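okkk here we go again. third time trying to get the S-adenosylmethionine bound version out, last two times i messed up the smiles copy paste (missing a bracket lol). double checked this time i swear
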Amino acid sequence: MTAGELPRKIRRVVVPPVKCQGIKTKLVRFILANTRWNGRGRWIEPFLGSGVVVFNVQPERALVNDINPHIITLYREVYEGRLTPPMIQEHLTKEGKRLLTEGEAYYYAVRERFNQAANSLDFIFLNRACFNGVMRFNQKGKFNVPFCRKPERFRPALVTKIVNQVAEIQKIMRGKKWEFRIGDWRNCLNEIDADDFVYLDPPYIGRHTDYYEHWSEQDAIELASVVQALPCGFAMSMWKENKYRSNDHVPQYWHETIQRTFHHYYHVGSTENLRNAMEEVLLVKPGYETSAVQPEKKTAKPVQLALADKRSRYWVRPSK
Ligand SMILES: C[S@@+](CC[C@H](N)C(=O)[O-])C[C@H]1O[C@@H](n2cnc3c(N)ncnc32)[C@H](O)[C@@H]1O
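finally!!
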């Protein structure tokens, strides 16, 4: 089997050290089980985010891109060995102690330092100490997420967990040919080979308006036309519908794709009735989809697929 070949069942999801909105940790098994790729070309991700998808695919060759320079710089430094797990351990332990003694003010001091002169160590500290792991920048490109209000945040157990996450992704990338680019998605969808595979996870239309995340309907329409003209396979994640509305963009611009759907819940409160159901869709180029996905565990229960793909069923784990 070629490295990265799909579909593949993964025993344990590799969780990356960076958190961001729209992170696909809970959907990565579903994505990899529904996608067919021979693993021979490059795995291309124009909207990398946390990188959870590529770190689970583990291709031999990859091209990963994001408009947010801090994410790409951090991963590039880890890939090149310029940022190591011991460096991260030392930094988070030292800064964590100051956060504990000086409290909230220290978080804002680090944020200010980062906004004056960005570096990957401060970026990971802020990403793991900010409110809800949100990644947001103001109109001038300055990180502006408030503190999570937990000065005791960097306990040894959390530091070890983050350090292990960095060590794991470094091991995954070791000896492989991965290219890291900073910029707009358009810059990495040229010179595509038929054996490449493009996985796309752009921001949701109209939801984000920060420095690194303007995503208009026009962007989404252009992406649909560029991607569907590519000579290689692709899969794209998108929201399909929630309790209140459905995403018209899907039937309008992606009707020629195979659609696999996945229900999950966003927790907006502590009780059952505060859970919001969301249906996510994976839009796959015909010929690059798998046949019906098998359950991962014996405890999984089948759920009938709704509108899009009447030929198949998918499985979700029963909610606890
Ligand atoms: C939904 S997130 C990707 C999440 C990722 N799949 C994960 O699981 O963590 C979208 C990403 O697209 C990036 N982005 C936004 N606009 C972009 C653009 N025009 N070109 C490239 N990347 C962009 C954002 O910085 C963000 O990291």
